[in-house]
Amino acid sequence: MAKPMMEELKQKQDALRARFVGKQLSEVPTPSVVLDLKQVTVNCERMLKAAENLGLQWRAHIKTHKTTELTRLQVGNRPTTPVLLIVSTILEAENITPLLQEYQSKGRHANVLFSFPLFASAVPRLAAVSSQLGPDGLSVMIDHVDQLPYVKAIHTSSGHPPRVFIKIDVNYGRAGVKTDSSEYPALVDVLLAAEHEGWLVLHGVYTHAGQSYGARRLGDAMQTLHAEFIHAHTAARKIREKSPDHAPLVLSVGATPTATTIQSPGFTEECNVPMGNLRGSMRPVEEELMELWGVWQKEGYVLEIHAGVYPTLDLQQVATHARQIGLLSEQDVGISVVAEVASVYPTRGQNSNPEALINAGSLALGREPVSLDNKTSYSDQTAKPYTGWGALMPWGVLAGTEEKDKSGKILGERFPDDFRGWQVGKISQEHGILTWVGAEGKKAPELKVGDRVRVWPNHACIMGAGFEYYLVVDSRYQGQEDEVRDVWCRWNGW
User: 52, 280, 296, 403: which could form a disulfide with 420 (CB 3.0–4.6 Å)?
Assistant: First the structure.
């Protein structure tokens, strides 16, 4: 990022800090997006610790938050740990380059992967990033032979051969090449020839099982992680067959539901978190994964885990039940949107239930659903599915009114197929309509015009795009949980 841009961002941040730090959430403009420093720190530390304990290389995606401050939490402060990042936009790469240079100056290896298959207009800006970071500083994603001239152009401009990941389609159907297609061996041949010529480094293979967002039972996401690793190993083995003496290849695997399953207590001898309803043992999958990892590491492969939305989490992630209830519930979500009740409609809702209007619609919350589990059939006919665009936290006037299930959670073992509480039931651009979901005869907690509420979003990545900065609170300070302690600026755009 150019120096004038950095200075402009710093000036903006200083002005926002002067405006908001020390204020209460009851005093800030709405809608505003809030991060809880305590929870995002815990979520980052869990991921770092799990990867380290299992001997897996860690690569953090920063597209959810797009901030320098949260990136620091994602990579930790161990001086011997590489700083490996993923970005979805070139703007993210440009803005994070100064931090990567800072880590390089302290002796930490740093690399950023632009995770969209390479296209022509990206070349000049990515070449500039490569020039600033030096050898091995930039990685790119390839899934088609026609993208290779762009890789060569980056090398020509920067003088550094980019590291290349082959994007593997693991039946998600978004991007990537299938390993059983005729295109895959042809792509590998071209990449190996280019590597021999010296203008790229074939670094490894990369998978993203986005379908894991649809997991709805404990164990589903771990099974998908297992399948991801099998796909990645198959792809890498086919490279090895063509180039037996190739340098160690990286198998980079993950999405937040799959990657965070490595936090499972089943990977350790101790189990000191509430397990919830296991619906069958996960231990065999964990044992098989560790067995495979050990074999593949002896074969010379580098095993890498990556994920992005795990620091903040959101309702889509809670709905996956990717981890035990003690590691994944509403208590682990570190992001929310503060909004105001602008109007109330006491009997307008279904069965004459109340509704309320808040000033947070699709531009503030996004418009991505949390899908229900069509495979599950509950005998309890009182189950009420979550169909909202966000759910209200038990905060402010709603504190103490929440309903919890037998696990002691609001969004418990049966979420999203069973839910109780206020949800953003209808949505348009600036309007959010709160609707009540409760047991038969259960009266909705009262909301009045002027009340403030906090909304857990369905998808934090999409929700954040509507905001320029985060207000940062810290729930470690009891009695001062609503005090704004910092402001973090986002890098919006491409």
Answer: 403
Cα–Cα distances in angstroms (integers) from residue 296 to residues 107, 167, 261, in the given order: 28, 20, 20
Reading the block at residue 474, the tokens are 């810290």
Residues whose CB falls within 8 Å of the CB of residue 490, separated by 6 or more in sequence, listed in order:
65, 66, 67, 464, 467, 468, 469, 470
Q: What is the pTM for the complete model shown?
A: 0.94
Whole-angstrom Cα distance, residue 349 to residue 343?
A: 14
| Residue 27, SS3 per DSSP | coil
4 upstream amide cis, omega within 30 of 0:
no
Joined together, the tokens standing for residue 466 give: 């509507």
- DSSP-derived secondary structure letter, 39: H
Nearest to 322 by CA among 258, 265, 278, 270: 258
Q: What number is the average pLDDT over the span 181-194?
A: 98
Query: CB–CB of 474/485 below 8 Å?
Result: yes
118-127, 157-166, 228-237, 282-291: least confidently modelled range: 282-291
**CA 272-274-278 angle, 5° bins:** 115
Among 84-98, 158-172, 277-291, 453-467, the range scoring the smallest mean pLDDT is 277-291
Instruction: Using the structure block, give the residue that is written with the tokens 């967002």.
Output: 213
In sequence order, what are the residues at sequence separation of 6 or more whose Cβ sits closer than 8 angstroms to the Cβ of residue 216?
319, 320, 321, 372, 373, 375, 376, 416, 417
Is residue 390 within 8 A of residue 456, CB to CB? The reply is yes
Q: Given this model, what pLDDT does residue 278 score?
A: 43
Residues 6+ positions from 229 with CB-CB distance below 8 Å = 251, 253, 289, 292, 293, 303
- Please state whether the peptide bond connecting residue 31 to the residue before it is cis, i.e. omega within 30 degrees of 0: yes
Length reported for the chain:
494
Residue at token pair 């402010």: 396
Query: Contact 232/168 with Cβ under 8 angstroms?
Result: yes
Q: Which of 247, 243, 115 is nearest to 168 (CA)?
A: 115
Distance (Å) of CA 109 to CA 50, 69, 83, 192? 20, 19, 6, 25
Is beta strand 201-207 parallel, antiparallel or unpaired with respect to 250-253?
Answer: parallel
- Compute CA distances 411 → 211, 364, 394, 443, whole Å: 21, 22, 12, 19
- Which residues are registered as beta bridge partners of 487? 471
Calculate the CA dihedral of residues 428, 434, 439, 443 and round it to 10 degrees.
-150
Residue type, 489: C
